[in-house]
Design a protein that fits this description.
Blueprint: H1 11-15, H2 17-32, H3 36-39, E1 40-44, H4 52-58, E2 61-66, E3 69-74, E4 79-84, E5 87-91, H5 92-95
Parallel strand pairs: 1-4
Antiparallel strand pairs: 2-5, 3-4
């Protein structure tokens, strides 16, 4: 007698598909719980700026430097990301000693 291809057997038939999927989903969630590398990310750019020699050659003066950080959360606070960017502002007038 040839086995029926549509007939299920094994653990899937015993547990039922929904229960198996629920079990796998729960196991995945438990295994990821507390994994900060998955749910919390942080990115930071390299600091930027011109050397004193370059500023002198270009007749530029540094007016300001900023390193703002933007933080966002999602999924009820379970996922977060932090991005830090470094900027520098130069002015020709500041390099020439003016306003």
């Amino acid at each position: 007698m040839v086995a029926n291809d549509t007939e299920e057997s094994g653990p899937v038939a015993r547990l039922g598909r929904r229960r198996l999927l629920a079990t796998l989903g729960t196991a995945t969630a438990v295994s990821l719980a507390g994994c900060g590398g998955v749910t919390s990310q942080s990115f930071e750019s390299s600091p930027t700026g011109l050397s004193a020699t370059a500023q002198e050659e270009l007749r530029l003066g540094e007016e300001s430097r900023e390193s703002p950080t933007v933080e966002r959360s999602a999924a009820g606070g379970n996922v977060s990301v932090s991005v830090t960017s470094h900027t520098a502002v130069y002015s020709r007038a500041a390099g020439l000693g003016g306003q």
